Amino acid sequence: MHKKRVFSGVQPTGNLHLGNYLGAIKNFVDLQSKFECIYCIVDLHAITNRQNPKELRSNILETVASFIASGLDPKKNIIFNQASVAAHSELAWVFNCVARIGWMNRMTQFKEKAGLNKENASVGLLVYPNLMAADILIYKATHVPVGEDQKQHLELTRDIAKKFNNDFNCGEYFPIVEPLIPKEISRVMSLRDGKKKMSKSEDSDQSRINLKDTKDLINQKIKKAKTDNEPIPSEIDGLKNRSEAANLISIYGSLNEIKMSEVLKEFGGKNFSTFKSKLIESIVDKICPIGDEINKLLKDKSHLDNILALGAKRADNIAKENLKEIYKIIGLTKFT
Length: 336
Ligand code: TRP
Hints:
By secondary structure, the protein is mostly helical.
């Protein structure tokens, strides 16, 4: 039996938004009191696409700042950046040799990200899922909080673990990981198009609430957020084909930790302007203090570097030992 251990990775992006918070970070915060948790800023995954070095560095710091400002405790959890722990890359190479090319070609995220010009995508983008499997399995993590969009990659992680265990006849050396996808989550959609995910890459800043937005900006963005002409329904069924309405109701529920059905009980029959002012209040209450704290933390970069350095040491201690075992299973010796 493997000890319960949570691992998750987040790509370093600047300017994190409400979707990142409700879809991932808030869940991490809830898990920290229940499990041993390791949270990794996956800078090596980021370079599968071309990055500006200055921006990459500042995005990494902004991501740690957002973690800490949201309530993740760097003493309770291990928080670090992937590039600090060499064993991730070392195990990823091993997995490049375990996983099959056909498995990579089936990954829908690769197809989406590579687009029409597959031949011109980086090799790193193709083997991205092997590095992700290495991130998780180098710690023998058992539970991985991720969004729906990462389910296929987790399935692949399980396949790699099974093939390795089987090829090397080593019982259940690698655990078969379980996704942790909270029930009432929290796929936050664009404020302008309820069918698209809220995203940093959407051109219009009006489509998202950034963690660092001011009160005035939040007020203005929510007031302008797309809805429809019907009043708010009293039952979930009434949200069918009303993706923008459903999105705002879901955001309100997540922020206040109540079910969507409860939100509808409170607001059913009312118009959107009444609901929107309550929603603005909730967002301002929960998000503005986080934004203020991010700005404060970003003023002291060496403090953030120290947090990452300490996390990296703790992660490295676990990863190094496990890599030794893994190499031994394979028949490799590391003399350094
Ligand atoms: N691929 C994940 C994403 O884009 C990020 C990630 C990298 C990750 N390594 C991981 C998530 C390990 C969970 C576990 O969201």
